[in-house]
Amino acid sequence: MDLQSRLEALIGPSLDAMGYDLVRVQLQGNQRLTLQIMADRKDGAAMGVEDCVGISRSLSALLDVEDPISGAYTLEVSSPGVDRPLTRAKDFVQWAGFEAKLESAQPIEGRKRFRGRLVGLDETGESVRLVVETGEVAIPLADVRGAKLVLTDELIRATIKDQEGLRTDD
């Protein structure tokens, strides 16, 4: 199991028990390592500084005991933000209808990078559907190397409604 998978397996259950979903674990840097943890509240409420502090304290203790990373690193805990990365299958369903950027490991119709309106997953749940300028494309979920929402006025309005508890998925 690679380090990324080990970190996800170590951190995920702890976050789950605290009432959070793990969005992304990313170890960055060469000389000065940073372990970035992105989390969402399970109740759908906006993440606050207090959430990040609580997660940081809990995970610091866990990481100190388990010691999965050799050498010094900085732990950074954050929310995914408005123009969030799409890392889980459920993200592509939850954020369907919004504009997204996506990069595929394998070329599809001669290209690897796409920007368009997210349709969601196909009926098998194995491909992401995206409407781009040339029509609809299906990108195998296993080939998605990076995906994120594009910051638009529409996304900002929807995020504000979510935080106010007004958005409905109809």
Automatic annotation (TrEMBL):
Example GO biological process: translation
InterPro entries for this protein: Ribosome_maturation_RimP, RimP_C, RimP_C_sf, RimP_N, RimP_N_sf
Assigned keywords, A-Z: Cytoplasm, Ribosome biogenesis
Cellular component, GO annotation: cytosol
SUPFAM superfamilies for the chain: YhbC-like, C-terminal domain, YhbC-like, N-terminal domain
Subcellular location: Cytoplasm
Pfam families: DUF150_C (PF17384), RimP_N (PF02576)
Residue ranges of every copy of the Ribosome maturation factor RimP C-terminal domain listed in the record: 86-152
The Ribosome maturation factor RimP N-terminal domain, residue ranges: 10-83
Matches recorded under HAMAP family: RimP
NCBIfam families assigned: PRK00092.2-5
Name the record gives this protein: Ribosome maturation factor RimP
Gene: rimP
